[in-house]
């Protein structure tokens, strides 16, 4: 219940934060919402000697469309996603996911940056970011760089961000007409980690064929899974149920679930398919103007 | 900050001898305070043990149960997973701050009238979440209430009367808007 | 309540608001962790990562160097004081701290005392322990196999078999079973669960060396029993021990046992001369404190070909963890499991239970179970549905056909219980009407034709509470009476103290209501206290739904003793013979002379200012109530579920609970108990379980993995009542706190199995995780 001692810094700029991370070179952890890090420290499963609190950095919390992208600042609170009319309208995959994350209290402090950076295969936003084709903007001592979400997740709790870097923004290609997206996970109990979850984005032409697609999976591998084959199988095809089912089957095969307290691998694999089908159907319906 | 902060001496129970501390200024239930705390001091223990506000409870160690819910700048949060230093310069409201001038808030009154509590341990956290919900959505449906309190666990009531209490409070607040404007 | 009928304000049957709420809604409750004493120190505990291991070394030097740490206590320190082991409530032994071997993961290994909570945590993390792992036993069947590693080498008998217990007519039942025209049998496993009240356990122990008084604030449901146990175990004189059970954040049985932390804190206080606070974390609570269930049951039912039950045979293996620390009445190591003939008139029945040691924490009955009645009712109500399926008979019809009829009460069961009263058909029919059972069966038929899965499940349970009559009930030899001490002040106000201890059940209100009814004094004028052993009369505490049946009865009896004396004072005041006075409509009235009367308040004043010659002044009484029998609340629950065929997820669409707890003291409070109890029946059916792998590692040891229901999945419970008073209880009340936890699980499981009927599976063990259902739906066929 009681975390071990640590040094604490609350820089007011990204540059200062990066300088601190560099100075402590791997011994420091970023404190954003703290609702993944502090629980680990309270159980003494993590004991960083330094915390760099980035909540005092102004200008890191925003949701806006700009220059052909939807840009979300790293310290945007998860509940802020639910308050955004823009997201409900054009990127409902993110509001779907936000609604299913943890509970409203955790979401008042938990951040988008934290959810995409933590590297738990049970985090919900990574699969969404993969489906949306997002890239993450990082700041570091060598300067800024971007990493696509689909290449960001290496292993459980291991991501592409270096210990001296800070994720500052999530950048998503701006939504186009006839784009739909959706996310859904099933869990043993609300707020728990997923037994399985699926994220989908589709873009349709005016004949109802799929011109672009993205699919991500939660909780069925060591990391979130970018179901690239399943998405590719949809492009150029009519968005009818038979093709959605076929894509779902491929997504199922791309999953690599492990048996644990949240279900046997066989079940999770099957659910990856079921949920991919459901979110694709929803995304298609939304692309056509439904809900 | 125009007002002068009242300094609070951290209870011996909360400072590890010799550990470095940070000075924080924090407004709690309308009162501006200052204190020196270790960075690892959790807000819930700061409230309970330094300020003696024991209405906020600790029910778990994995940020699940919500017994520790307080308002941080008006938003309900789990104070067991907030460092006191993160609340520096911010406003905190606890259950003790729901009453105004000795008068129970509509949420408190409704929990009493609808039998929304039994052992009382989850109740402060539950009422803090409810108060924040009703400030945003004064007329929630059953499903909206249940969703809003899903981060507050109760073992005694089975939630039925808690949902009734929150809806009743909302109705009451719409009939007679409070002078001070809620919590 | 009509305006004309006389009633007292706050009497029985009124839904008055709770007196205790005033402090809770203001955040001014006084729970153990709110207790703060000058110079108070903190205790934290170092725990074993191994389920079974020899301790080869404990090094405390690093811990002692942590700033703020004052002392480290190990098993060797306690051994010197004869406290390394202490008796359990079942006359087995448990370790306070080990001297050489740990026997479950998370077992207490050392206590660290420091001047702050934070320093104590640092200290506990700094204690270094060397372990030599030993073979781990987690499967109770394997524990009983010859050659299994013996866990309790301290016992004379070197085996993991704790005891064998049986009751009933073995040969008669065997015969009846063999000759039964219809037989069904089923293996049922009820996994280990943990009650997880929102407040964890803890204490503040204070040995005052000057006065010699030892005071301990403790999260306990049974303060007097604890005081006596402390006296016997520590040798401290009992008049110098004060146990204070202040506000308790839920108990449900989890706050009955004596946990090692309490004893270590007590020793620490004696050693340091300071008060010592110990408050466990949730993880410690889940991983080390008393669990519930863990019964492996094999049940058989025999019946005639037209569906009349004739024989019941049950064999159970009980996994008790490393010691038998279940807080059962001493004659019943398997609790009241033999209520298992339930609501049905089995002519022959035989039950046997064997208990085994495993490398897990001890316990067994700490989850609102009425001493294993949850296990019994789960078994019989599942078996009735399995029998109905075999006979191809509607499960409601099978029950109605078999129920013990109202005229058969008092009814003596084949396993020796005399049920006081019941109207089982009345409750079931009411539930069926409320939920439109016939309509649901029609809907189910339509849905089945379309391949949709919908199920209806019934549970018609008989509970047994109110432990208990002195011939058969005791805990560690202390009889299970309970008590009320009632005193009326000159101005007609009342103070009453009880030997029970509410942990949220509302005794400050409900006991006041009983007294209001009996004394004619408004409940607002009656103050109820519990929990301080210096002032409260001796009692066995609150658990197993015993308070209303025992202490509630004591309240009535004490009040009636007061009324008897008061009648004489009234006669004196009214200048008539006592024979001319009757207690009617809440006043002492001269028979046949309306208008000549005295209220209890007037009598009370006189008791101090004008008491009759030959009578003592004052107006009070104490009653220690030895119940003549248990009470038998009952009910019928009907659950409707819908199943998502693709995911196996179960949704409870509707749940109607008809309960009969006899006379209802406060309908609002009774409904609250039922809502909460139903939720604790729902939880183990679908969500909660604690599992151990082969190495004894616990799974489900934090709230991240042990999933307690939230408001989102908890159904909106619908409740109704029938009222069949207990003929032997002074106000006809029966107790109700656990009925719903007892009755709900089979209703839910029966509903799910009913929905899955087309798939030919008879049973799936709880919790009914979605993948277990999915495996049945997708050709698995075997229960997980």
Structure commentary:
The complex is a heterotrimer of chains A (291), B (183) and C (784). Chain A is of the alpha+beta class. Chain A has helices at 14-24, 37-42, 78-82, 85-90, 92-100, 104-107, 112-117, 125-132, 228-234, 241-254, 265-287; strands spanning 7-9, 28-31, 50-53, 63-66, 69-73, 135-139, 145-148, 153-155, 158-159, 166-173, 179-187, 194-204, 210-218, 225-226. Chain A is 34% helix and 25% strand. In chain A, strands 4-5-10-6-7 form a 5-stranded antiparallel sheet. In chain A, strands 11-12-13-14 form a 4-stranded antiparallel sheet, with helices on both faces. In chain A, strands 1-3-2 form a 3-stranded parallel sheet, covered by helices on one side. In chain A, helix 9 (228-234) runs antiparallel to helix 10 and helix 10 runs antiparallel to helix 11 (265-287). Chain B has 183 residues and is an alpha/beta fold. Helices cover 29% and strands 15% of the residues of chain B. Chain C folds into 3 domains: 21-28 and 482-625, Aldehyde oxidase/xanthine dehydrogenase, molybdopterin binding domain (Aldehyde Oxidoreductase, domain 4); 32-134 and 200-248 and 255-288, Alpha-Beta Complex (Aldehyde Oxidoreductase, domain 3); 292-467 and 629-777, Aldehyde oxidase/xanthine dehydrogenase, molybdopterin binding domain (Aldehyde Oxidoreductase, domain 4, 2-Layer Sandwich), CATH 3.30.365. In chain C, strand 28 (581-584) and strand 29 form a beta hairpin. The radius of gyration of chain C is 27 Å and the shape is globular. Chains A and C meet through helix 11 of A and helix 4 and helix 19 of C.
What key phrases describe this protein's structure?
heterotrimer; B: 183 residues; alpha/beta; Ubiquitin-like (UB roll); DNA polymerase, domain 1; 2 domains; 6 strands; 29% helix; C: alpha+beta; Aldehyde Oxidoreductase, domain 4; 7-stranded mixed beta sheet; 5-stranded mixed beta sheet; 19 helices; 36 strands
Question: Can you tell me the CATH superfamily of the largest domain in chain B?
Answer: Beta-grasp domain
Instruction: Tell me the β content of chain C.
Output: 15-25%
CATH fold name of the largest domain in chain C: Aldehyde Oxidoreductase, domain 4
Work out the number of β strands of chain C.
36
Q: Report the biggest beta sheet of chain B as strand number plus sense, adding barrel if it closes.
A: 6 strands, mixed
Can you summarize the main beta sheet of chain C? 7 strands, mixed
């Amino acid at each position: 219940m009681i975390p071990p001692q640590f040094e604490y810094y609350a820089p007011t700029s990204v540059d200062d934060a990066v300088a601190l991370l560099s100075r402590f070179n791997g011994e420091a952890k970023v404190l954003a919402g703290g609702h993944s890090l502090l629980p680990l420290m309270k159980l003494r499963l993590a004991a960083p000697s330094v915390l760099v609190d980035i909540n005092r950095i102004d200008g890191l919390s925003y949701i806006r469309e700009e220059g052909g992208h939807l840009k979300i600042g790293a310290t945007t609170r998860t509940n802020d996603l639910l308050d955004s009319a823009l997201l409900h309208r054009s990127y409902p995959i993110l509001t779907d996911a936000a609604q299913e994350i943890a509970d409203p209290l955790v979401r008042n402090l938990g951040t988008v940056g934290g959810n995409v950076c933590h590297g738990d295969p049970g985090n919900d936003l990574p699969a969404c970011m993969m489906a949306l084709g997002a890239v993450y903007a990082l700041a570091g001592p060598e300067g800024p760089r971007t990493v696509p979400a689909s290449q960001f997740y290496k292993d459980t709790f291991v991501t592409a961000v270096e210990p001296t870097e800070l994720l500052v923004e999530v950048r998503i290609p701006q939504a186009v007409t006839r784009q739909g997206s959706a996310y859904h996970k099933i869990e043993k109990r609300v707020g728990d980690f997923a037994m399985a979850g699926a994220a989908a984005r589709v873009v349709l032409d005016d004949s109802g064929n799929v011109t672009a697609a993205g699919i991500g999976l939660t909780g069925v591998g060591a990391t979130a899974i970018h179901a690239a084959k399943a998405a590719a199988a949809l492009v150029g095809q009519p968005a009818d149920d038979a093709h959605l089912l076929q894509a779902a089957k491929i997504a199922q095969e791309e999953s690599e679930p492990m048996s644990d307290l949240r279900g046997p691998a066989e079940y999770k694999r099957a659910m990856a398919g079921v949920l991919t089908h459901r979110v694709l159907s929803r995304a298609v319906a939304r692309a056509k103007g439904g809900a | 900050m125009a007002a002068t902060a009242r300094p609070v001496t951290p209870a011996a129970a909360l400072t590890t001898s010799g550990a470095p501390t940070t000075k924080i200024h924090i407004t709690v239930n309308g009162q501006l305070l200052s204190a020196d705390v270790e960075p690892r001091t959790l807000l819930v223990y700061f409230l309970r043990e330094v300020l003696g506000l024991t209405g906020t409870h600790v029910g778990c160690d994995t940020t699940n149960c919500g017994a520790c819910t307080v308002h941080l700048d008006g938003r309900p949060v789990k104070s067991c997973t907030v460092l006191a230093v993160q609340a520096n310069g911010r406003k905190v409201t606890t259950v003790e701050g729901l009453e105004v001038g000795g008068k129970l808030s509509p949420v408190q009154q409704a929990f009493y009238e609808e039998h929304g509590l039994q052992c009382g341990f989850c109740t402060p956290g539950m009422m803090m979440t409810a108060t924040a919900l009703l400030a945003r959505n004064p007329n929630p449906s059953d499903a909206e209430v249940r969703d809003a309190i899903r981060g507050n666990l109760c073992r005694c009531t089975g939630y039925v009367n808690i949902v009734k209490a929150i809806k009743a409070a909302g109705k009451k607040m719409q009939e007679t808007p409070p002078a001070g404007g809620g919590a | 309540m009509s305006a004309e009928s006389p009633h007292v304000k706050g009497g029985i049957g009124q839904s008055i608001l709770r007196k205790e709420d005033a402090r809770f809604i203001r955040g001014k409750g006084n729970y153990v962790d709110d207790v703060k004493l000058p110079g108070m120190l903190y205790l934290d505990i170092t725990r074993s990562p191994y389920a079974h291991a020899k301790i080869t070394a404990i090094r405390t030097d690093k811990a002692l160097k942590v700033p703020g740490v004052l002392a480290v206590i190990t098993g060797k320190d306690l051994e010197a004081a004869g406290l390394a082991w202490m008796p359990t409530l079942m006359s087995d032994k448990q370790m306070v701290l080990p001297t050489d071997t740990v026997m479950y993961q998370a077992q207490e290994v050392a206590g660290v005392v420091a001047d702050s909570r934070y320093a104590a945590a640092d200290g506990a993390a700094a204690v270094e322990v060397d372990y030599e792992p030993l073979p781990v036993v987690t499967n109770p069947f394997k524990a009983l196999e010859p050659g299994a590693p013996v866990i309790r080498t301290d016992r004379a008998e070197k085996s993991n078999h704790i005891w064998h217990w049986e009751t009933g007519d073995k040969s008669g039942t065997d015969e009846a079973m063999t000759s039964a025209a219809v037989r069904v049998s089923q293996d049922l496993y009820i996994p280990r669960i943990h009650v997880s009240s929102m407040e964890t356990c803890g204490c503040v122990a204070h040995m005052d060396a000057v006065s010699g008084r030892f005071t301990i604030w403790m999260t306990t449901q049974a303060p007097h029993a604890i005081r006596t146990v402390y006296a016997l175990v520590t040798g401290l004189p009992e008049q110098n021990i004060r146990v204070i059970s202040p506000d308790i954040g839920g108990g449900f049985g989890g706050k009955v046992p004596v946990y090692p932390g309490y004893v270590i804190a007590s020793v620490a206080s004696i050693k340091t001369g300071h008060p010592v606070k110990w408050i466990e974390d949730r993880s410690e609570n889940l991983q080390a404190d008393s669990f519930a269930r863990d019964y492996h049951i094999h049940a058989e039912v025999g019946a005639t070909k037209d569906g009349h039950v004739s024989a019941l045979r049950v064999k159970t293996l009980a996994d008790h963890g490393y010691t038998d620390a279940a807080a059962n009445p001493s004659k019943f190591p398997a609790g009241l499991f033999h209520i298992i003939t339930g609501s049905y008139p089995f002519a022959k029945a035989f039950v046997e239970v064997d208990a085994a040691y495993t490398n897990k924490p001890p316990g067994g009955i700490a989850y609102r179970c009425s001493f294993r009645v949850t296990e019994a009712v789960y078994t019989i109500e599942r078996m009735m549905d399995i029998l109905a399926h075999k006979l191809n008979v509607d499960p409601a019809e099978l029950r109605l056909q078999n129920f013990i009829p109202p005229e058969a009460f008092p009814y003596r069961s084949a396993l020796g219980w005399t049920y006081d009263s019941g109207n089982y058909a009345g409750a079931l029919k009411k539930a069926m009407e409320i939920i439109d059972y016939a309509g649901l069966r029609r809907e189910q038929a339509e849905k089945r034709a379309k391949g949709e899965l919908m199920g209806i499940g019934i549970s018609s349970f008989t509970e047994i509470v109110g432990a208990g009559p002195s011939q058969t009930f005791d805990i560690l030899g202390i009889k299970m009476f309970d008590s009320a001490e009632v005193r009326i002040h000159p101005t007609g106000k009342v103070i009453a103290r009880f030997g029970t201890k509410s942990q949220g059940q509302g005794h400050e209100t409900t006991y006041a209501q009983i007294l209001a009814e009996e004394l004619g004094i408004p409940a607002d004028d009656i103050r109820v206290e519990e929990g301080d052993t210096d002032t409260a009369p001796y009692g066995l505490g609150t658990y197993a739904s015993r308070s209303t049946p025992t202490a509630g009865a004591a309240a009535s009896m004490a009040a009636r003793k007061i009324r008897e004396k008061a009648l004489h004072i009234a006669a004196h005041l009214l200048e008539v013979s006592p024979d001319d006075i009757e207690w009617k409509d809440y006043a002492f009235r001269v028979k046949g002379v309306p208008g000549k009367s005295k209220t209890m308040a007037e009598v009370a004043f006189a008791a101090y200012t004008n008491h009759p010659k030959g009578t003592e002044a004052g107006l009070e009484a104490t009653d220690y109530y030895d119940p003549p029998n248990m009470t038998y609340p009952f009910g019928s629950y009907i659950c409707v579920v819908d199943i998502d065929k693709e995911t196996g997820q179960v949704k409870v669409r509707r749940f109607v609970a008809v309960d009969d707890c006899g006379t209802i003291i406060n309908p609002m409070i009774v409904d609250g108990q039922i809502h909460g109890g139903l939720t604790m029946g729902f939880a183990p059916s679908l969500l909660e379980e604690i599992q151990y792998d082969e190495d004894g590692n616990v799974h489900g040891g934090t709230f991240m993995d042990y999933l307690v229901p939230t408001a989102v999945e908890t159904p909106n419970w619908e409740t109704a009542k029938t009222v069949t008073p207990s003929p032997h209880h002074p106000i006809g009340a029966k107790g109700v706190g656990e009925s719903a936890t007892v009755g709900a699980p089979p209703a839910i499981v029966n509903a799910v199995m009913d929905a899955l009927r087309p798939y030919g599976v008879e049973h799936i063990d709880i919790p009914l995780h979605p993948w277990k259902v999915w495996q049945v739906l997708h050709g698995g066929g075997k229960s997980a």
